[in-house]
Write a structure and sequence with these properties.
The protein has helices at 11-22, 64-70, 104-107, 113-117, 123-133, 152-159, 161-176, 185-192, 208-215, 263-266, 272-280, 337-343, 348-360, 389-397, 417-434, and strands at 3-7, 26-31, 42-45, 48-51, 76-78, 85-90, 93-98, 201-203, 220-222, 224-230, 236-242, 245-251, 253-256, 267-268, 283-293, 304-305, 314-321, 329-335, 370-383, 405-407. The protein has 435 residues and is an alpha/beta fold. A hairpin with an 8-residue loop joins strand 16 and strand 17.
Length: 435
């Protein structure tokens, strides 16, 4: 029986391991953290389950059949509102924008008719991208490589600046941490053609429901920090520490499913082109703050996105129902990437103090109301797709397989849970062809 070691128990690694195990492969999963799930994990806090990374599923990367196999389909719930919709602040008023409605931009009052008319100038690029992406499987963002010559800041500032500032920037900053100057036009166009599910959803116990259900069916060792994957010998050698003790294992293939920026920390024997690719993989930090209050904060909206022209630090603020329990409300104050970077090396309490202070500049009434607070912080939150990233990804995908190793992770597609899971399925299929 062939043997595979999977490094990383996020949704990409767990999904790949589950597929390989079902195909008759002996699989061992090693996870450095004390718990599984990566950025797809949840915890109970103040009467509701909160997500510590991703908070909903808004793509088609997960098949319903998977949830049925795992016995969690009945736990799935519609995300509050059933769509990704929010109010965007502009010139002293909130304007509703439904991102999941194909006609949402036409109904959006945050842009004038003249500003919307300028969107016509984007049609040639969108048409080219539609042609490039036509028939491509979900997740293949590298079909945007043809447009990877400039950032969306450069491109949209020329053609549709209001669309950039009052539709794209506030949404991408909040959900993905992508700043316009460091987000490729090619990455933007390719993700624009990703199919959307009929509903946006989560689970009663958060998205960690999925990764825990996968892990429960697998041989997973947590607290196992991999120190070396040596591709030179056959079989491949993997070394790790577990409870302070050194461990060693061999495998026909190692499937590396950790953030791309960490691959070179422990992998030895990669060819030069793969090494050059991983040297360029970058991530943006991300955080999710939650607050409980002694009473509803008067005047604070349900969910308000704040463009950078309105506030350089605060990305969104709102007092709204929990995504998993409609009977519980939290105050949420989300910060832009620049702020997150400034505080990522400071302790949680200092960061939370600064977050509350930033929110209070707009809504001073919140400060005395905050009762309990929590923040989940990720130094490597989501992959960054700057100028040149799509060309590098295209060239990486085109490489012939290297003996003994395969890779999975959202940096190979885009920053979403479904995309991460999909890359794990690609890696599993590649492994099965070679084993």
């Amino acid at each position: 029986m062939p043997r595979v070691i999977v490094v990383g128990a996020g949704v990409a690694g767990l999904g790949a391991a589950y597929t390989l195990q079902k195909a008759g492969v002996e699989v061992q999963v090693l996870e450095s953290e004390p718990v599984v799930g990566g950025r797809m994990r949840s915890r109970e806090w103040n009467g509701a389950w909160i997500d510590l990374g991703a908070e909903f599923i808004a793509d088609v990367g997960f098949p319903d059949a998977l949830f049925r196999e795992l016995g969690i389909m009945a736990e799935r719930v519609t995300y509050p509102g059933g769509s990704v919709a929010f109010d965007v602040w502009r010139d002293g008023r909130a304007n509703r924008f439904d991102y999941t409605d194909p006609a949402g931009i036409l109904k959006y009052d945050g842009m004038s008719a003249l500003e919307k008319a300028r969107l016509v100038s984007l049609i040639p690029a969108m048409a080219r991208q539609w042609k490039e992406s036509r028939g491509a499987p979900y997740g293949e963002t590298w079909h945007g490589a043809w447009a990877d010559d400039e950032s969306i800041e450069t491109w949209l500032s020329r053609r549709a600046p209001a669309f950039l500032e009052y539709a794209i920037e506030p949404m991408f900053e909040l959900y993905c941490g992508w700043e316009p100057h460091n987000f490729s036009k090619g990455a933007f166009l390719s993700t624009a053609f990703f199919p959307r599910p009929e509903e946006i959803y989560t689970f009663r116990r958060g998205l960690g429901t999925v990764t825990e259900a996968l892990a429960n069916r697998l041989d997973v060792t947590t607290g196992a920090r991999v120190t070396k994957v040596d591709l030179e010998p056959s079989p491949v050698v993997v070394e790790w520490t577990e409870n302070g003790a050194p461990r060693r294992g061999e495998a026909d293939l190692v499937l590396v499913a950790v953030p791309g920026s960490r691959v070179l920390d422990f992998t030895r024997g990669l060819d030069t082109r793969r090494t050059a690719f991983f040297e360029k993989v970058e991530y943006v930090p991300h955080e999710l703050p939650f607050f409980t209050v002694t009473e509803p904060p008067v005047g604070v909206p349900g969910s308000l996105f704040i463009p950078r022209r309105e506030d350089r630090d605060v990305a969104a603020i709102g007092y709204d129902v929990s995504s998993t329990n409609p009977e519980v409300k939290f105050l949420r104050i989300s910060m832009k990437s620049g702020f997150v970077r400034r505080y990522i090396d400071r302790d949680d309490e200092e960061a939370l103090d600064a977050i509350v202070a930033a929110g209070a500049r707009r809504y001073p009434q919140i400060t005395p109301l905050v009762k309990d607070r929590f923040v989940s912080r990720w130094r490597e939150g989501l992959p960054a797709f700057g100028v040149g990233s799509m060309r590098r990804l295209r060239d990486f995908i085109a490489l012939r397989p290297q003996r003994g190793v395969a890779f999975a992770g959202d940096y190979l597609a885009t920053g979403s849970t479904g995309a991460a899971y999909t890359t794990g399925q690609w890696a599993a299929a590649d492994a099965l062809r070679r084993l």
